[in-house]
Amino acid sequence: MVLSMLIFGLMSGCGTGVGTGGTLDEQNKNEHQKQLQPEIEIIEKTDEMFIKYTVKNRTGEDVKLTFPSGLQADYIIYDENDKKIMQYSDDIFSTQAIQEVTLTNNEALENTFTIPNLYVGSFKIEVFLTAQEDQAKVVSNLLASNSN
What we know:
By secondary structure, this protein is α+β, with helices and mostly antiparallel strands. It contains two helices and nine strands. It has a single domain, classed as Intracellular proteinase inhibitor BsuPI (Immunoglobulin-like), CATH 2.60.40. The strands form three sheets. A four-stranded antiparallel sheet has the order 5-4-8-9, with no helix packed on it. It has a three-stranded antiparallel sheet with strand order 1-2-7. Strands 3-6 form a two-stranded antiparallel sheet. A hairpin with an 8-residue loop joins strand 8 and strand 9. The N terminus is likely disordered.
């Protein structure tokens, strides 16, 4: 009986960890997502919109980001019915070389996008990193009021 309890106790202490927060990689990724602070600034001009996407490292330590190409950030624009109408990476060519960037604490990574010819209407924009470690995604409403 004592042996059975000992074996049961040992077995109950051995787990994969999936039920308590996932694998170590998932836990690290979630920690980065809590500490990498993304934000966007939207500026509308006569026939273009400018999106400034900034990700600031608030982890208290250096963060290494690995990008599978020369494209560090991407965006997707959805219409009022949540239908994808535009994605930046669909219309550009980028290098295929792997890129590594290390952000020190409080350092920021900035990307600026120009969105031409967006018709008048209400949209949702989702901007995110293409890094393997973290997407630092931010979603915002986008109102295009200038006609093309």
